[in-house]
Design the sequence.
């Protein structure tokens, strides 16, 4: 990973205090993403000013505003207003509150505005960003970044994260990756891709079947099941060293499942005792504890965000359904009753909902249900969709999709809006899993 | 016609003369006769070596054929999301068991497979169950459990790449792979 030196400071901290920063600090949420009436939030991002005062680097002016618009657009929360609609005279307006005529912005229907400027001397690049509440005519957040020319994307992503924090109360998922499986012919390999669809990277080169990759909560390891030695065995790969250790290779299935939220334990499905049961493994001591005791299929366990409960799939009722139990295997209860095929549970990091896939009209679709077993929400409708995994902020789901002979990894807002294709092709895409925040930069 | 008869006549004549010539010579020296006998030995051995080789090849071929025949063990098929054995699957498994009871020098890997629908993880478990159902049935018919192993490939290795009912039905299977015992 690129390790760069970048200095970030809160710009104009004093000014922020004077101008009433305390309003945001006291928890004003501009965008209530969870509201059922949520509509995309308007934001305007004019071209950045060259603060060196010269006429050079015109394209950098456009680049900064476009890059920020692209990143904010990816969240699905913003309606970025077209530059063609702008009324402001860019030559006369500045980038500070006193040099902005806010009526120019209110009149085009925006509620927020990002102004920015940069200085580039051919070696060092600095850029400052300010987010304004145009209705109240005041700054919400401002930051200045110093670095090299190559660091400009990072500056934009960092500020996009600040915008999200200031407006939604939570940082976004910039700087996360999705791991998934790409199958060509009889073999499959693990790949990763960034949240914005950039940097597709192949992770494994085993030339055999591979399944169910999961991130460790620190993002440093990826666990998976591989047939590279003939049997479906369980491995953990160190991402930095690119080496994998075999952790479990009992006869039968050694099926990878998620790590506990604190990273100390890993769930597994093993069939060593003659039928598929759920176990929890302490990878340090290799201590293995069996959690289910049922002659039916028990598979695909996942943790609640507090690590105290598990959701899993069992066909003990005759068809695969989602069940919940305590982390020690007690208090098993059935969660899903609608439909006769419900699998792949994934517990929202917000704790309240569980996403899964079910069959409707003969096709697999992604649903979510609250942990009490009510309020079912169908999230996908088109094609056949499987294996959902939540983003670390619980706002999005990633899933694999199949339609018209094309295979895709897609991202969707958890309310079913704003679907975006992350990667597509003619080969089978499966088992996507969203990373924790990785601190990519 | 006439010409051919003439040629045959000449041939017979030469043959007769040569017999007289050989027997005539034989009388002349015993040493030479012995030498011929000594030389004959390797000549006699050579075809038997080739025969052995042929025999070995034939045996290998037969074994290969047998293995190929064995590896052509018919798949047994299942209903969607089911691992119970249908009557025709039981019939097929009885034939497989008969062959295995006759040919004790072979082991079997029973692979469990699913169609592409559903979760890959659940399908791995389901494939495991299908292989286990087939194994249990064959063991009940007297085949030594030690000769059998199971492995599930879930939906990962479809037989038929199609995406329709017919392909799915073929892909929901338990497949027998016969191996020679080592």
Sequence:
């Amino acid at each position: 990973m690129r390790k760069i030196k970048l200095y970030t400071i809160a710009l104009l901290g004093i000014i922020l205090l004077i101008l009433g920063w305390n309003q945001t600090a006291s928890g004003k949420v501009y965008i209530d993403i969870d509201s059922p009436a949520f509509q995309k939030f308007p934001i305007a991002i004019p071209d950045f000013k060259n603060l060196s005062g010269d006429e050079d680097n015109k394209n950098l002016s456009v680049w900064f505003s476009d890059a920020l618009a692209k990143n904010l657009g990816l969240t699905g929360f913003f309606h970025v207003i077209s530059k063609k609609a702008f009324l402001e005279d860019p030559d006369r307006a500045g980038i500070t509150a006193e040099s902005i005529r806010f009526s120019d912005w209110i009149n085009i229907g925006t509620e927020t505005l990002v102004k920015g400027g940069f200085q580039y001397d051919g070696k060092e690049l600095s850029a400052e960003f300010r987010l304004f509440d145009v209705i109240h005519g005041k700054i919400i957040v401002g930051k200045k970044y110093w670095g090299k020319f190559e660091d400009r994307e990072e500056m934009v992503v960092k500020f996009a994260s600040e915008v999200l924090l200031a407006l939604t109360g939570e940082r976004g998922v910039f700087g996360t990756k999705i791991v998934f499986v790409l199958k060509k012919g009889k073999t499959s390999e693990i790949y990763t891709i960034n949240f914005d669809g950039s940097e597709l990277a192949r992770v494994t080169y085993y030339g055999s079947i591979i399944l169910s990759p999961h991130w460790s909560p620190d993002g440093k390891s990826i666990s998976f099941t591989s047939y590279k030695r003939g049997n479906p065995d369980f491995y953990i790969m160190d991402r930095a060293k690119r080496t994998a250790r075999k952790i479990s290779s009992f006869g039968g299935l050694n099926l990878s499942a998620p790590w506990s939220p604190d990273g100390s334990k890993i769930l597994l499905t093993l069939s060593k005792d003659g039928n598929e049961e759920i176990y929890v493994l302490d990878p340090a001591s290799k201590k293995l504890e069996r959690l289910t005791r049922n002659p039916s299929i028990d598979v695909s366990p996942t943790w609640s965000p507090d690590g105290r409960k598990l959701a899993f799939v069992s066909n003990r009722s005759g068809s695969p359904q989602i069940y919940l139990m305590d982390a020690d295997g007690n208090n098993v209860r059935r969660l899903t009753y609608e439909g006769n095929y419900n699998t792949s549970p994934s517990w929202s990091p917000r704790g309240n909902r569980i996403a899964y896939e079910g069959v409707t009209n003969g096709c697999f679709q992604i649903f979510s249900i609250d942990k009490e077993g009510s309020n079912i929400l169908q999230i996908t409708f088109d094609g056949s969709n499987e294996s959902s995994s939540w983003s670390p902020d619980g706002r999005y789901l990633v899933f694999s999709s199949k339609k018209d002979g094309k295979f895709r990894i897609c991202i969707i807002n958890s309310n079913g809006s704003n679907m975006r294709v992350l990667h597509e092709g003619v080969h089978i895409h499966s088992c996507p899993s969203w990373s924790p925040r990785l601190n990519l930069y | 016609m006439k010409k051919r008869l003439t040629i045959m006549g000449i041939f017979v004549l030469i043959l007769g003369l040569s017999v007289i010539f050989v027997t005539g010579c034989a009388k002349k020296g015993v040493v030479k006769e012995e030498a011929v006998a000594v030389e004959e030995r390797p000549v006699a051995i050579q075809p038997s070596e080739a025969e052995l080789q042929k025999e070995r090849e034939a045996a290998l071929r037969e074994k290969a054929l047998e293995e190929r025949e064995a590896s052509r063990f018919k798949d047994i098929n299942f209903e969607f999301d089911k691992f119970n054995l249908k009557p025709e699957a039981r019939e097929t498994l009885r034939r497989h068991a008969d062959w295995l009871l006759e040919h004790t020098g072979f082991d079997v890997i029973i692979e469990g497979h699913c169609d592409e629908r559903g979760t890959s993880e659940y399908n791995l478990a389901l494939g495991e169950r299908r292989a286990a159902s087939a194994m249990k049935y064959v063991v009940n018919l007297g085949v030594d459990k030690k000769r059998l192993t199971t492995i599930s490939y879930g939906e990962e290795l479809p037989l038929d790449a199609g995406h329709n009912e017919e392909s799915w039905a073929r892909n929901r299977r338990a497949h027998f792979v016969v191996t020679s015992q080592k």
In short: The first helix of chain A runs from residue 13 to 18. Chain A touches chain B through 35 residues (CB under 8 Å). The radius of gyration of chain A is 24 Å. The helical segments of chain A are 13-18, 22-25, 58-74, 102-106, 152-168.
